[in-house]
């Protein structure tokens, strides 16, 4: 496929082809920034389609889909039309007609986990259209994203697109209200975690797309979805509510266009682009993949209401320290917890972090761990690891647009396999379930002086409840 000259290929930003694409991108960004704010092909307008605090809102502003099964297709379309707008500017400036947006693969180790050089140097907005002073200084100086936040392996290991803690998010109506539904694993990590860590405009959905790195980040998320799709029969999701739901954008001529999710499930042939290396050849996270189950039938019954079998007592503020929360499992629920955790069981066990509230995304991302020993050795963190908790969207959840009521955010993680393995190691005590939240710290990098996000205190983010539930 990749040899088909008609198919456009997106390259990794640090490859020679990607670096060249980035040079054209920088010039096109500068040109788009000069356009009038009410021109749909301007930089400001394109960013406002994702989110903005600037009122009055113009046509198609504040459309981003988050915490929903529409997260991946909405952002795929958004990047696709944005790429057409940038390409037209690249061509106007004398660049290639087959220009494509490069992707930032921070999941590669080492220097690739740092913002690509041209986003940092020169560190002057007037000279460098890719530089944004508002980012966390650690990253603007060349700091590196920790692997735990940058790796898509956990997302790629999910067997389904739809469902609690599956790849693409929980089903439900679009945008009602935003930041309220169930995020998919890919939305959570690396997506939300990278937004939070880079910080500044990137840390808040209403400003994020103003940072030129946003688009390379989303290009990478899109690529991970394409890899997952290659490995998972390409026909999931198959639900009509998802396939037929459509969204509107503007094309390079500023005309309104629309696409349905079912028209963007596969980049080839539907959208005529792919990635280099090709998604089919990627081996990222393959060791961790669960065996691919058969696709769910198109009209599979929705899971019944989750059954709650345990909960924490009080609200817990997170302020930058590592915190442990006891969760009491109901006496009568204990057998069910074991059954749901057993690999042959038909039910699934989830850990839920509910009613998360705060005024501002602190940039800190927390690792969540079950029953970590008192003085954990580095390998204990891996053995007790549940997932990452970050707070992208918390500002808007607390102050929704229009007359929607403020609400907390939530996150659910599947913990059956972890509980089962802890149990077999004798590291599980149902009388004493403890959930630890520990800030994830990027490593020190030579030449970077700023402290990394996560290293200090932050304004409190409050967790309303930590609970354990079973879906049948
Ligand atoms: Cu709609 Cu990365 O955000």
Structure in words:
The protein contains 14 helices and 13 strands. Strands 5, 6, 7, 8, 9, 10, 11, 12 and 13 form a 9-stranded antiparallel sheet that branches. It has a two-stranded parallel ribbon with strand order 1-4. Helix 7 runs antiparallel to helix 8. The two termini are 41 Å apart. CU-O-CU linkage binds next to helix 7.
Spell out the key features of this protein.
single chain, 472 residues, alpha+beta, 9-stranded antiparallel sheet, two-stranded parallel sheet, 28% helix, binds CU-O-CU linkage
Note the topology.
Elements: E1 8-10, H1 16-34, H2 43-50, H3 71-92, H4 137-140, H5 147-150, H6 153-156, H7 185-198, H8 213-231, H9 240-243, E2 246-250, E3 256-260, H10 267-271, E4 273-275, E5 307-311, E6 316-318, E7 323-329, H11 334-341, E8 348-357, E9 366-370, H12 378-383, E10 385-389, H13 394-398, E11 409-414, H14 416-424, E12 433-439, E13 461-471
The protein binds CU-O-CU linkage (C2O).
Helical percent range?
A: 25-40%
* Principal-axes shape call: globular
Written as H for each helix and E for each strand, in order along the chain, the element string is EHHHHHHHHHEEHEEEEHEEHEHEHEE
Report the portion of residues in β strands. 15-25%
The structural class is alpha+beta
Rounded mean pLDDT score:
92
Number of beta-strand segments? 13
Radius of gyration: 22 Å
- How many H/I helical runs? 14
Q: What is the first-to-last residue Cα distance?
A: 41 Å
Sheet with the most strands?
Answer: 9 strands, antiparallel
Q: Bound small molecules, which ones? A: CU-O-CU linkage
Q: Detail the poorly predicted runs.
A: 291-298
